[in-house]
Amino acid sequence: ITFFRAPLFFIGTFAGTKVLGLFSQVYYLANLPNTLLGAVTQSVAFATYSKIQGDKDKLSKGFYITNFFSLRILLPVALLVYLFPSVILEILYGSKWVGASEMFQYLFVFILVLPVFTNTVVFMLSMGEILFACRIYVFSTIILFLGMVITLWSHDYWMLPVSYSSALLAGLSFSISILRKGGIQISLRKLILVPTLIVVAIIFLKEYNSEKLLLFYGFPLCMLSTVAILFYLMSLLFEHKETFNNCRYVKSKMTVQR
Q1: What percent of the chain shows pLDDT beyond 70?
Q2: How far apart are CA 25 and CA 17, in angstroms?
Q3: Rounded to the nearest 10 degrees, what angle do helices 56-83 and 220-257 cross at?
Q4: Neighbours of 52 (CB within 10 A)
Q5: What is the mean pLDDT of residues 202-227?
Q6: Is the pLDDT of residue 254 over 90?
Q7: What is the pTM of this model?
Q8: 200-204 — which CB contacts under 8 Å span 24+ positions?
């Protein structure tokens, strides 16, 4: 609660209600993917991790599979927020909210990292490592409040989402190091390398060849759909074997449970 809610109090107190209103609205939007994935990354994950907590190989595989699919759902969402924040806000809320575009854009890392961060915390709680989970939240909260102090002192409010994203990245790095020390095998290369390269390629194409890439540039929904479809086509092209193998693994486990 302190990590996710307390900073909003300080923003409203020291930055004013206008900044609070703009940030709280884009912050709500940035939290939606985590809310929608919560059933998988939190509830189902907790039950699964608890059931296999004595088998580190299965735990490593479960963590990998959960975050493999989560990241591939989240990456195109984060990519769209980074490339077209004003377009998304205008579609959802109207032109009066376009002023929050910069803050929304810098929340793209928050959108991507939050579900993975919560999944690592859930992993630790399912192992009974409550103290480690608390330490991660305390560490992340300290990083967040340091960023908040700098932001409110400098009045550069685009740093608000950067502070949140930095705190989550720091907490995730800390939690992954703890899991690795506990014998859990986590291959970040397999999790994020290919989709990250795809995202970088799409950003490059958009910046330097946007008219040919975005065939429906004058139609916002078509433009957003084009980028999302392009991401998934490239993802299937470069990692279709890994994706299909993971799908078969999930299907086999579901069949055994039935």
Answers
A1: 92
A2: 12
A3: 170
A4: 14
A5: 68
A6: no
A7: 0.88
A8: 201/234, 202/79, 202/83, 202/227, 202/230, 202/231, 202/234, 203/79, 203/82, 203/83
